[in-house]
Write a structure and sequence with these properties.
The protein has a nine-stranded mixed beta sheet, with helices on both faces. Helix content is 42%, strand content 20%. The chain is α+β, with helices and mostly antiparallel strands. Helix 2 packs across helix 3. A hairpin with a 2-residue loop joins strand 6 and strand 7. The chain is elongated, with a radius of gyration of 23 Å.
Length: 380
C-alpha cells in the first residue's frame, strides 16, 4: 500500500471545509523534495513550484503548490504518532517478513533541542530525544519513539518493541536495555536479544567479567565457545576475540531473575594496531544474551551489526540530511524526522545508481525520471 493510500486512512487534523490542499498531496510533495535535497519548509515549497508539472501529473486535483507557511503549519499540527503509524505500515509493506538484527538506540536531535523564544529551556519536551529501531539486514528504520520529559528510554523501548514482529530477530541494545521489562518484552515477542553491560549495571557487569575471565584460559565442553576474526582497513589491523559462556536457563537464577530468558554471557576483546606506528590498543566489552553458546560466530556478527544504526542511520541523519542543523521544534521536528528516515530508506535501497547518498539526492533533483523511479519503486 502506497504512502498516498496510507495517508488517506488518517484523520486530517485541519478544520473541515477550510483547507486548500489535500493532506496526501502535502505529504507526497514533502517526501519527494526531501529526497531531492530539501532541508527547510521554504526549500520544499520552492522545489514544488519548480517541479509543478511533475507533481500535477501525479497528484489528482493539484492546482498549486502550498507555501512554506502551509507546510510548516500542517506538520506542526499533524499528530506525530499518526505519521509514525503511516511510516511503520509503509515499512512493513516494503520489507515483508522481518528477520536478522534489529538494533535499538537513542539519538538527541540537537537542532530541535536548541533554545529559542519558541522552545525555551525548562519547557515540557524541550529536549527532543528519539529512540529508533533499525533493521540491519534491510538497511531501513523500523520506527521511532520520542522520549518525553516525563518518561525515559526504559519505558519507551518496550513500547517501540511492541510495534515490531520480533519472532525471527535478534534485538541488540546498549546498556539502557538491561531491564527486566525490556528482556521480557523481547522474549514475549519470540525474539532473542544481545544487550551491552556497562558501569551503570555494576553488579551484573562484575559478575559477567568474573565468568568470562574464569574461562579465559580453559575449556569446558558445552559451557564455553569461542571465535576470532581479523581484518585490515583504514590503516589499522584489528583482531576480535569472542568468548561465550553459557549455563543455559539457570543463568537467570545466577543474575537474580533480572533478565528474562538469559542463557549466556559474551565477552568481546578488540585489539587494534595502527600499521604505520605499531601502536596497539585493547578494549573489552561484555553482553548478556538469550542465545546459547552453540554459534559464537552468529553472536559476534550480530554485535558488529549493531553499529550499523550509528553508521547507516544516525551518521547519515547528521551529515547527509543535516538533522542537527534543523530549527524545527516539537511536532514539526518529529514529523520531519520521520520523513527524513523515509527518504533515507528510499535512497539507501536504490540499487540503480552507484555513489553516495549525496550524489543520489543531487541526481533526484536533476532528473525527474530518476525521482519518479525512486518514488514509484518505493510505493510512495
Amino acid at each position: 500500500m502506497s504512502i498516498i493510500k496510507l495517508s488517506k486512512q488518517m484523520v486530517d487534523p485541519r478544520v473541515l471545509g477550510r483547507t486548500t490542499y489535500k493532506m496526501e498531496h502535502i505529504i507526497y510533495i514533502t517526501i519527494a523534495a526531501v529526497i531531492a535535497g530539501a532541508q527547510s519548509w521554504n526549500d520544499i515549497s520552492e522545489f514544488g513550484k519548480e517541479k509543478f508539472d511533475f507533481f500535477k501529473e501525479r497528484l489528482d486535483g493539484l492546482k498549486s503548490i502550498p507555501s512554506h507557511d502551509t507546510f510548516n503549519r500542517f506538520f506542526s499540527i499533524f499528530p506525530a504518532n499518526s505519521f509514525e503509524e503511516i511510516f511503520r505500515n509503509w515499512v512493513k509493506e516494503i520489507i515483508g517478513e522481518l528477520k536478522g538484527v534489529v538494533a535499538i538506540d537513542g539519538k538527541l536531535m540537537r537542532g530541535p533541542s536548541k533554545c529559542d523564544a519558541d522552545n525555551p529551556i525548562g519547557k515540557d519536551d524541550f529536549r527532543l530525544w528519539v529512540v529508533s529501531a533499525w533493521s540491519s539486514e534491510n538497511s531501513i528504520s523500523l520506527g521511532q519513539e520520542k522520549v518525553s520529559a516525563k518518561s525515559n528510554e526504559i519505558t519507551i523501548v518496550p513500547k517501540l518493541l511492541s510495534a515490531i514482529d520480533l519472532s525471527k530477530t535478534i534485538v541488540t541494545i546498549d546498556a539502557m536495555g538491561c531491564q527486566t521489562a525490556i528482556t521480557e518484552k523481547i522474549i514475549e515477542g519470540k525474539g532473542d536479544y544481545i544487550i551491552a553491560l556497562k558501569a551503570n549495571q555494576k553488579h551484573s557487569l562484575n559478575l559477567a567479567k568474573d565468568m568470562i575471565s574464569g574461562f579465559a584460559n580453559r575449556e569446558r565442553r558445552n559451557i564455553v565457545s569461542r571465535c576470532s576474526t581479523t581484518n585490515e582497513g583504514h590503516g589499522r589491523h584489528e583482531q576480535r576475540d569472542c568468548i561465550v559462556v553459557s549455563y543455559g536457563n539457570i543463568m537467570q537464577n545466577m543474575f537474580k531473575e533480572k533478565f528474562i530468558g538469559l542463557k549466556s554471557i559474551v565477552g568481546i576483546t578488540s585489539k587494534r594496531t595502527i600499521i604505520a606506528t605499531g601502536e596497539t590498543t585493547e578494549e573489552a566489552r561484555y553482553y548478556i544474551t538469550s542465545l546459547s553458546n552453540k554459534d559464537p560466530e552468529k553472536i559476534a556478527d550480530a554485535i558488529r551489526q549493531h553499529w550499523s544504526i550509528e553508521n547507516n542511520l544516525h551518521w547519515q541523519l547528521d551529515f547527509t540530511f543535516r538533522e542537527d542543523d534543523s530549527r524545527k521544534v516539537r511536532n514539526a521536528a518529529r514529523n520531519f524526522s520521520t520523513i527524513t528516515k523515509m527518504a533515507l530508506s528510499i535512497l539507501k535501497n536504490d540499487k540503480t545508481t552507484k555513489g553516495s547518498l549525496n550524489l543520489k539526492r543531487l541526481k533526484a533533483g536533476w532528473s525527474e525520471d530518476y525521482l519518479d523511479r525512486l518514488l514509484t519503486g518505493s510505493s510512495i
